Each structure stands twice: as structure tokens, then as C-alpha cells.
Amino acid sequence: MSEEVKEVFQAGKTLLIDKPLEWTSFDVVKKIRNTIRIKKVGHAGTLDPLATGLLIVCTGKHTKKIESYQAQFKEYTGVISLGKTTPSYDLETAFDSEKPTDQVDLAKVEEAISTQFVGKIAQYPPVFSAIKVGGERLYNKARRNEKVTVEARQVEVHSFEVEAFSNPDVSFRIRCSKGTYIRSLAHDLGQALGCGGYLKSLRRTKIGDFSVEDATDIDSFVTEVQLMSEL
Q1: Does the structure show a pLDDT above 70 at 231?
Q2: pLDDT value at position 163?
Q3: Is 48 a catalytic residue?
Q4: What contacts 177, CB < 8 A, 6 or more positions away?
Q5: 3-71+211-230 CATH pick, 3.20.20.150, 3.40.30.10, 3.90.1150.10, 3.30.2350.10
Q6: Which of 131, 177, 209, 220 is least surrounded by CB atoms within 10 angstroms?
Q7: For residue 125, how many C-alpha atoms fall within 13 Å in the half-sphere facing its CB?
Q8: pTM (2 d.p.)
């Protein structure tokens, strides 16, 4: 790594990364930090390991922009699967209940969404989340089967569109505020329909005006930095 390239990243870069499946957001930050060999690297909004898509990573002086990026609206696409639940509200944990979904149709799904899950809503975050309670991440407590109390918080869902419905799967596109847990929306929609539900897949497509279409994958970023260092 040349000093010239390090100085470029220390001066500040805003990187758009397409986070791969099963990587944590910190895994991406760590990889970039080790690649450009500077300490000041951070991300603007966590993505769960089982989610893919847009992760904004800031380096050097651009880390001052993280808070403003985090405050912008987010857009996600994905699939909610009805009829089963998991403690984590996604596929990180095993199924713990199952109910039939024969009574559910598109009209019922859209009615539940429009009447309960659009606008300003009170939402309980999953216990399997990165929120800190007593200085420790909730997911660590949840994995030890400790009983934790999670308070509801107000979030705003700007739009919640059903792009396809093939029982039990609901393909969706959501635009929402900072702090909205799509896993909780999946779980709560299943509860509203009386059959349960979990988040089967999730991809973040936008943060404000930034789009995943303009993002690069982590391997391509590493290769690009290596080429920069060789010039």
C-alpha cells in the first residue's frame, strides 16, 4: 500500500459496497480497513448477516458524514414467508411454530399492510438485534436465552408494496425511516394475519439518493485498491 493511496482514503472517501450474504457489516469494515491500512473506517447503517445490498462505508474525514447518511430513508426488497416463525424473525434461528396459511390471500395481506404497517407505527425490535442493553448487544443475551425487555420505538414506513404473492411467500418493496426493522415487520405481519411469518430474504437497495446499482462488491474494491497501489 503506497502512502499516496493511504492519503487519498485518509482525506475521505464515501464507498458504496454491495454487502455479501453472511458477512456482518463489521466484516466489511474490517476488510476495507485492512485493505487501505487506515484505522478511521465506519459504516452508515447495519445490515444483518443474512441481508445483502447497499452498505455505505466512510473512510478518513468522511466518517463525519456517517450520521447524516444514517438519518436518510432506506429502501428494501425481499420475501416474507407466512405460516412459520423463528425467535430471530429470520432464518438465523430454527422454526419454533407453524400454522396453515390456506385462509390467507392477497387481499388480506394488502389490507393488513395498509391498515397497520404504513405511516408512523410503534415497533418492537427483535431480541436478536444489535441494540445495546446494559452495554451489551441484545443478540448476545438472546443467544444465552436470557430474558430481555425491549421497548417499542416509533418508526415510519413510507411505503410497503406487495410485488408478488405466491402463498406462503410475500415479495415486497419497502421505503422506511432510520431504525425500522424489516424482520419485525415480517413477524408482525404474520401475527396480524393469524398465521405467523418470518423474513426469508432481504436486500437493501437504497439509502437516500444512493443506490445499490452504483455499488461495488468487496472483492472488486480490494482489486481496485491493489491496482491503485501499483500505479
Answers
A1: no
A2: 98
A3: yes
A4: 73, 74, 155, 156, 157, 158
A5: 3.30.2350.10
A6: 209
A7: 21
A8: 0.93
